[in-house]
Amino acid sequence: MTTNQPLELLAPLSGVLLALDQVPDPVFSSRLIGDGLCIDPTSQTLCAPLAGVISNIQDSGHAVSVTDDNGVQVLMHIGLDTVNLAGKGFTRLVEEGQRVEAGQPLIEFDADYVALNARSLLTLMLVVSGEPFKLLTPEQGLVDVGQPLLRVTPQAVADEVKDEEGDALFSKPLTLPNANGLHARPAAVLAQAAKGFKASIYLHKQTESANAKSLVRIMALQTVQGDTVQVSAAGEDAEAAIQALVTLLAEGCGEAVTAHSPAAAPVAPDSSATMLRGVCASPGSAFGQVMQVKEPALTFAEAGKGEALERAALTHALNNANQALQALQEKAIGTAQSEIFRAHQELLDDPALLEQTRDLLDQGKSAAFAWNSATEATATLFQGLGNALLAERAADLADVGQRVLKLILGVQDRAWDLPEQAILIAEQLTPSQTASLDTRRVLGFVTVGGGATSHVAILARALGLPAICGVPAQVLELVNGKQVLLDADKGELHLNPDLAEIEQLQVTRQQHVLRRQREVEQASLPATTRDGHHVEVTANVASLQEVEQALSLGGEGVGLLRSEFLYLDRNRAPSPEEQAGTYSAIARALGPERNLVVRTLDVGGDKPLAYVPMDSETNPFLGLRGIRLCLERPELLREQFRAILASAGFARLHIMLPMVSLLSELRLARKILEEEALVLGLTELPKLGIMIEVPSAALMADLFAPEVDFFSIGTNDLTQYTLAMDRDHPRLASQADSFHPAVLRLIASTVKAAHAHGKWVGVCGALASEALAVPVLIGLGVDELSVSVPLIPTIKATVRELDLADCQSIARQVLGLEEAAQVREALRLYHAATVETSLVVEH
Ligand code: PEP
Ligand code: MG
Fold this sequence. Notes:
Layout: E1 7-10, E2 15-18, H1 26-29, E3 35-41, E4 45-47, E5 52-57, E6 63-67, E7 73-77, E8 90-92, E9 99-100, E10 105-109, H2 111-117, E11 123-127, E12 133-135, E13 141-143, E14 148-152, E15 169-170, E16 174-175, H3 184-195, E17 200-205, E18 208-211, H4 215-220, E19 228-234, H5 238-250, E20 275-277, E21 279-282, E22 285-292, E23 300-301, H6 307-331, H7 336-348, H8 351-362, H9 367-383, H10 388-409, E24 422-426, H11 431-435, E25 442-447, H12 455-463, E26 467-469, E27 483-487, E28 492-494, H13 499-521, E29 536-541, H14 544-552, E30 557-562, H15 563-566, H16 576-590, E31 595-599, H17 627-632, H18 634-645, E32 652-657, H19 663-679, E33 687-692, H20 695-699, H21 701-704, E34 710-713, H22 715-723, H23 741-756, E35 760-763, H24 774-779, E36 784-788, H25 792-800, H26 804-815, H27 820-842
Helix pairs in contact: 6-7, 6-10, 7-10, 8-9, 9-10, 13-25, 14-16, 16-18, 18-19
The protein binds phosphoenolpyruvate and magnesium ion (MG).
Phosphoenolpyruvate binds at residues 560, 562, 602, 693, 714-717, 764-765.
InterPro entries: Dup_hybrid_motif (IPR011055), HPr-like (IPR000032), HPr-like_sf (IPR035895), PEP-util_enz_mobile_dom (IPR008279), PEP-utilizing_PTS_enzyme (IPR050499), PEP_util_C (IPR000121), PEP_util_CS (IPR023151), Phosphohistidine_dom_sf (IPR036637)
Cofactor: Mg(2+)
Subcellular location: Cytoplasm
């Protein structure tokens, strides 16, 4: 039963009473959290000052609130900044929701430990529900635990916060930056700010919600750093409330915070602060002016205006998004952009996403709310799986999510008003934004989030825009118009470039342009060294378009068809006919004189395939990847073999197995291939080879060689497994270097073993696409270089500048060096002395 009878609050501790004004902490002394008093304790057990229910007790045990039946809410906070002790020194004696009597012990604490390890032991008792009170003792002096201290007059239960009505607006989700979540201090700042608005306002964390005007409710959410929260508001000033509170939350509600990015951990800023470092997402360099770009926050109502209406709005938006993506795809046909827009179209059609959205529409939610919740939830799921590639697909999902959301809300995309020679700076760019950048004005971009393997990075490379990602958030503070130099090759943004640096950059760029022109003009010439040694230069491809492009740039065949990429963004397995059609089309494009090396599905590790569900693994790069996965699901492999075999005769067909680490894997796969060939009535088997990308295969190459037709060395994986460095790790990117002598030694011994058995060896990892590496690979005896399509002319031109005998000598030299940097330096000197001199002479 509730009454308005005055209520006496007892001293929760023995100690010395102080007025709040004397507390050396403005959040408390300003009464932002609530009015009350302070005790410098001499006892070590905090007791309930009134009877009621424990409305909140922090996990860390340093603060507790009791609410009585009349709604009087009293918060006790032991010590200052004790949240930082993370529970050490405190023992909770009660649980949230438990009814307690006045005087009942609530928390025990170790006063010595707290006094030594926190800012102060001063303990606050605050009437946070705001009722007026009278002091029953002198304002200062000694008090004993249990002694009556305050007389509170309960108010008629105020209808302080109206229930949120159907027309609540929701903010976009944001990540809490506060090191200890919303503990008392930031929660108080937030509640105080929320009280400044008439709207009813709620803070949401997953499925829990708290009245944002209630300090205790906010604390009861027990948020921690990195939690995703949302603000909702209903009422006349809802929009303003959301904007103000989201800004406040992002800025840490009065606490000093550093911007939190869920993406790759930013690399520490250069101490001189004249340069910021990130990771190269797309090579090149540019000198231009800073242009910060930001997406405006979208707000929308949770409740729908009728199910039929909301369904129609969703369908309309999905159709329009589909049409827009189709148009973008057609405009970019044959390019990486086109593939990405096709993948986005698939997401529009994703059954799980649509089912989640429709479930919410069934519950009366608005189309915007339903679609947004479904896409956000799935993106969060992707991000939380600990897989870099899936986390990057979350960015694609967020991009599609925004596209549809804007269409539902009728928000027009405003074109960015870009200055000339802009270097865009953003927290994160979406693939759509990247694809539609006006490259006449934009010279490059820099993002805090993102990764080198993201679709944004792929697009930047396709557009030829230099870009770096994983840059510290302080880049977002640079003023628009500031002149900066972006050296993406080195992953650097120079904030105060001097004239010499800028001029050097322009000279280098001009040389690049001239060299590229010449290389493309001569792309059809064979890759033969000056002394007559021919090296086959083939292409790494993932689509028919890339095969066609490769041929036009002088590619002599396909050294690696990454078959999993043909279907990476598909929700359903391609039919056997479709697979056979794809391989045959590629083989036909190459013709009977050229090699086609089809690698069987290399799924797992950083490459999940939506239609091949896999259990999550703690360490997917060391788990069921590549051939291991296919042998676990032999039907998958059989079906793929059948589809590949259907293209036999159209090109010189080779089948290659990825991630082989054991002889038994090769033998089992060969048996399956032979069985399938027999069923199809083929008299001749295609060539069968393996990738050398696991050290065990490289070390046992002499035993593998008699049983294969060829090897192709995957230096990307061979490097990560040899050096035990994750190939996608943003902080190890500079050390996980394929130029490491350990990797080169494995290449050397593999080639030796293969040649002893008359088998050829290719390199299809990214090392083969580096002009600097060409002399050492040729010197080690590599027969084929399978390279990324745009680099075919460069690699062929580089081969033509070399002498085999020189290459052999430089290869011998670098095998004896200690680390990758030394190898690079030795090759740079060699390159400067040979290739570059000859270019300068000719120009
Ligand atoms: C490699 O590992 O070097 C390779 C070519 O395979 P992928 O990059 O597709 O793993
Ligand atoms: Mg590999």
